Amino acid sequence: MSARLVIEGLNAGYGKKTVVNGVDLVVEPGEIVTVLGHNGAGKTTLLRGIFGLIRLKSGKVGFDGRDITGRSPSDNILDGVALVPQGHGIFRSLTVQQNLELGGFSVTDKAVIAERIARVFGLFPILEERHRQIGGTLSGGQQQMLAIGMALMSGPRLLILDEPSIGLAPLLVERVMDSIREINAELGTTILLVEQNLKQGLAVANRAIVLNRGTKLYDGSPAELADEGRLIAMF
What we know:
Layout (H helix, E strand, L loop, with lengths): L4 E10 L2 E11 L4 E5 L6 H9 L6 E6 L2 E2 L5 H7 L1 E4 L11 H8 L6 H14 L1 H5 L10 H13 L5 E5 L7 H18 L2 E5 L3 H7 L2 E6 L2 E6 L7 H7 L1
Parallel strand pairs: 3-8, 3-9, 6-7, 7-8
Antiparallel strand pairs: 1-2, 1-4, 4-5, 9-10
């Protein structure tokens, strides 16, 4: 079985500025890999480069054994890659139900759409209770759940999450992290997670990556980063 995601020598940035420098990364099917680093370390730029939201300066991105370097986000979604950006990324003027239906825009079979909506409601019962509520009136935590649910509607094999805990109260952070575990365990979805909450990010991961100034400093067991002193030194 080929790796789900292979990144080779990825360099990315904005204009003349390079933010990510020569990052290599392999994510195996079924893994949860958490990317850690301080603000400005290049975490979001890495995800945007993988998903095709920015053009790479150099390097390659492979998905399920195929070169997808520079492929458009819409083609990535159709092929089984989904991104949940920072700030939830929902349609604030539409209902929960409508948001989920839009998340399944690439699915033509109505029975599959209904099945996936039911699956999202199983993961996030509060969304089923509020399926007629306007998305923008949900709490921050509920909007994050909805954003994840929208991404799941396309049936991704790789789910990319950019700081899903940002701005959430501790109890909601735990619920979102529990949902990430459930998605991975029940659906077999491979997950690449950027997370600012070090404790939660390490707790959910099979493997951890540490970036500093766009360079990968660590790639290995989350348990080895339990010593906060070592992790802080990397930052």
